[in-house]
Design a protein that fits this description.
The complex is a heterodimer of chains A (174) and B (621). Chain A has helices spanning 10-13, 24-38, 48-69, 71-81, 96-111, 116-142, 146-173. With 174 residues, chain A is mostly helical. Chain A has two domains: 10-69, Helix Hairpins, CATH 1.10.287; 96-173, Monooxygenase, CATH 1.20.1280.20. In chain A, α2 runs antiparallel to α3 (48-69), α3 (48-69) packs across α4 (71-81) and α6 packs antiparallel against α7. Among the domains of chain B are: 400-512, Substrate Binding Domain Of DNAk, Chain A, domain 1 (Sandwich); 523-609, Substrate Binding Domain Of Dnak, Chain:A, Domain 2 (Up-down Bundle). In chain B, α2 (125-144) crosses α3 and α11 (528-554) packs parallel to α13 (583-595). Classes of the chains: A mainly alpha (174), B alpha+beta (621).
């Protein structure tokens, strides 16, 4: 990886402040502006070093952009940046209430896997739960309470996984 | 007396100084080659004025080959040696080949890729494709009366890594430097978007002879950003022929046909299919070698009915691509139709119905891919101007993963991730003293290994013996802008860094390619040594020129001492190139000189990023 001396992290790379709250259109613009400079296609006549660095920076820009664009990944990254790890492989404990809700959703998905209307109602509920979690995550990050924030992120990862499965089930029927 | 050409100071480069590169649409049925001339892309015609080059190669007993129309004449009388639709076999094993029963070829199952038995020996699809590409290159050189520097070659967006690698190998065999493998729908979007100055979200529906692609793009201020792509690399116009072929066999109650009759009937139904795009009725009429006369009437409605499932399959891919892009049909401003098979009315109707708008047919569906490829080739060759300040951001079409316990797949890079991309994964040993680790890389969306395409199996060796779980092996998967994968592994914990570059096991090895190159093809009469010296000299000149331009523009980023050092290195390289005749010495000198510019290149790149962001982050701070 090239020495990204001009930036310490994904946020500063795009000229943004390291906050959860983010105007994605500003991120989009910064991403495109940077790719216009660093993409390998812009350096086809450059030296080998220039081409290699262009490749590394374009790769980095893509990784950073994808991380920040997705609010769940952005939250996870922000926690890590502040020294709080999720330990996803080892820490799978979640509050009982949260797990109950997950089980309830999974049962609803199984019971009505052929019923488009019920699935769409369920999707709306899951969407709302996600939005609530984002609001909560934003507050926690603003209060610099990353230990709480990482718990919210771990919950969001569960919700996201379920939302994808639900989405697939809906696509099967549509 | 020859007239001297004199260019006005400050005018465009003289024609011979312009770097000529071509765009090639290497199609299943037909191929095309295009260039940009006077800022306009143009498909090149052969000496008979024909622009479509049939993707057909015929092998003769003496080893000579015929291609294009010349070969096409023999598809019926010499079916085994006349190879059509070879693109379907690129990077494919025998078990992947569909419609084998109606193929007249003798297939040979080889690990990685099938071979075809001909009178001139067993041929890989890569060699057959190289014959097509070599002819297209010749066509272009004859047309522009100049040497071709490089080519952008289009591939279906849904091609996997093995199919892409096979295409790149074929180009190398044909003596073409691949500037980029470009996705066909993306090429079409470039041609369409630049022609119409489009802004917004567009879909490209590309149904070719043997492949189907759907891509969703956002076009804004000269950036073509692919949001998602999907499709089927084994579904195309050929399959509509196959449906009609099977229907005719059934209706006429025919017993299995001889190879030349298979070919004849396939050609006959292809014509019938084309007629049914224009008329409500058509007939299949053919006399077989057995004397049997086949005569059937087919209505447009009947044809639509027997092929409707194929159209539905494409529409399912369209919906999936929209979902992947998190978009609805009404977000899409226009649907660009590409590929000859989109001429079929029921395909047009299905697209119009789904998007609730008429599809865009204002560019020739046969030409649009080649035109886009030529534009990208011109840009990559360095003919940048104010008119072509545009950039393409593409994605990887299929997820990359590795096999884990129990034959399951762990995804490393999900589909539709923008490229270039790199992802690292850490592995450890599970036995004391374990020195090797085997990895199996697969591509596809399913969760079990067997349902995905196996790309490569490789063994990491030389891990220092340690207790179980102590080794830290970091494996990096890198996908470049061509969508091609390379894997790189490092053992980190021991302090000794073992670095391994792995080339996937499928496709051709470098020795294979060297052998084939020596066997003939593009460089047959060329002295390899002289050629490689010339390449190194060009490389050296390119470096000196590029560094000179960079110093001129951004030299202020360096200290006086740093500048002087780089200037000295470049001067030394310049002197060496004038006299040295050993290509390996020139190469080493280029490498050494290039190294001294690393630091400068980094500084320049960082400066340009800062410049790009200036004024964009004020609101945030």
């Amino acid at each position: 990886m090239a020495n990204l001396s001009a930036s310490d992290n994904h946020f500063t790379f795009f000229g943004l402040l390291p906050r959860f709250k983010l105007d994605t259109s500003v991120l989009d613009q910064a991403y495109l502006a940077i790719q216009k400079e660093v993409h390998p296609d812009r350096h086809t006549n450059g030296t080998e070093a220039e081409q290699r660095i262009a490749m590394q920076l374009a790769t980095y820009a893509n990784t950073a952009y994808r991380t920040l664009k997705d609010p769940v990944q952005r939250g996870l990254y922000l926690c890590q940046l502040n020294g709080v790890e999720a330990h996803l492989e080892t820490n799978t404990a979640m509050p009982a209430q949260f797990l109950m809700k997950q089980m309830e959703w999974r049962e609803a998905l199984e019971d009505s896997s052929e019923d488009l209307n019920s699935l769409e109602l369920l999707a709306a509920e899951v969407y709302q739960a996600k939005q609530n979690a984002f609001t909560q995550l934003e507050e926690e990050c603003e209060k610099i309470d990353y230990l709480k924030a990482i718990e919210t992120v771990r919950g969001l990862l569960f919700i996201d996984k379920f939302a994808n499965e639900l989405d697939d089930a809906i696509a099967e029927l549509a | 007396m020859a007239l001297l050409q004199i260019a006005e100071p400050g005018m465009a480069l003289a024609p011979h100084e312009r770097k000529i590169s071509i765009g090639i649409d290497l199609g299943t049925t037909n191929s095309l080659v295009a260039i940009v001339k006077d800022a306009l892309p143009k498909v090149l015609a052969d000496i008979n004025g024909k622009e479509l080059f049939p993707s057909v190669i015929r092998y003769l007993p003496d080893g000579r080959t015929e291609g294009g129309y010349e070969a096409l004449e023999h598809v019926i009388d010499d079916p085994k040696n006349t190879i059509v639709s070879v693109k379907r076999f690129m990077g494919r094993g025998l078990s992947d080949v569909s419609h084998m029963e109606s193929s007249p070829y003798e297939f040979i199952d080889e690990p990685g890729m099938v071979k075809l038995r001909t009178v001139a020996g067993d041929k890989t699809p890569v060699e057959v494709s190289a014959e097509i590409l070599a002819r297209l290159r010749q066509l272009a050189e004859d047309s522009v009366q100049d040497e071709i520097v490089g080519a952008v070659i289009t591939v279906p967006a849904y091609f996997d890594d093995a199919q892409r690698q096979a295409t790149k190998d074929a180009a190398q065999l044909a003596g073409l430097k691949v500037l980029r493998l470009l996705n066909e729908p993306t090429a079409a979007a470039i041609a369409y978007g630049l022609d119409n100055a489009s802004e917004g979200i567009y879909a490209v529906y590309d149904l070719g002879g043997g492949t189907f692609d759907i891509s969703i793009l956002r076009m804004s201020k000269g950036v073509f950003e692919v949001l998602s792509t999907g499709g089927d690399s084994a579904l195309g116009g050929d399959d509509f022929d196959q449906c009609l072929y099977s229907w005719v066999l059934e209706q006429a109650k025919l017993s299995p046909l001889a190879p030349q009759d298979q070919r004849a009937l396939l050609l006959a139904v292809k014509q019938t299919k084309e007629q049914l795009s224009l008329a409500t009725f058509a007939s299949v009429h053919l006399t077989l070698s057995t004397g049997t006369v086949v005569h059937l009437e087919v209505s447009q409605a009947q044809f639509f009915e027997i092929t409707q499932s194929l159209v539905s399959k494409t529409m399912a891919s369209v919906r999936k691509a929209l979902r992947d892009a998190h978009l609805q049909t009404h977000d899409v401003k226009g649907v660009v139709m590409v590929g000859g098979a989109t001429r079929m009315p029921h395909v047009q109707a299905a697209v119009a119905e789904l998007f609730a708008k008429q599809p865009l047919n204002n560019l020739d569906p046969d030409q649009v891919v080649a035109l886009g490829a030529a534009m990208q080739a011109d840009l990559l060759a360095g003919n940048q101007s104010k008119n072509n300040e545009w950039l393409l951001l593409d994605v990887i079409p299929l997820s990359l993963g590795i096999e884990t316990m129990g034959g399951l797949v762990e995804k490393i890079i999900p589909r539709n991730t923008p490229i270039p991309v790199a992802q690292a994964q850490e592995f450890t040993t599970f036995k004391d003293g374990q020195t090797g680790l085997s990895l199996h890389v697969v591509q596809g969306e399913r969760e079990v290994v067997d349902a995905c395409r196996s790309l490569a199996r490789f063994e990491l060796k030389g891990i220092p013996p340690m207790v179980a779980g102590a080794a830290r092996i970091r494996v990096t998967f890198q996908v470049d802008a061509d969508g091609l994968l390379s894997v790189h592994a490092i053992e980190e914990s021991s302090g000794v860094q073992t670095s391994i570059e792995i080339k996937p096991s499928y496709g051709l090895s470098d020795t294979d390619i060297t052998r084939m190159l020596q066997d003939g093809f593009a460089s047959a009469k060329e002295d390899m040594q002289a050629r490689s010296l010339r390449e190194e000299q060009v490389e050296a000149e390119r470096l000196i020129e590029a560094v000179g331009a960079a110093l001129e523009q951004d030299g202020y980023l360096l200290t006086d001492v740093e500048r002087a050092l780089i200037r000295k290195e470049m001067a030394q390289l310049h002197n060496l190139v004038q006299t040295e005749r050993d290509s390996s010495i020139v190469r080493k000198a280029v490498e050494r000189a290039a190294k001294t510019t690393d630091h400068f290149a980094e500084k320049r790149m960082n400066a340009s990023i800062q410049k790009a962001l200036t004024g964009k982050n004020v609101a945030e701070i």
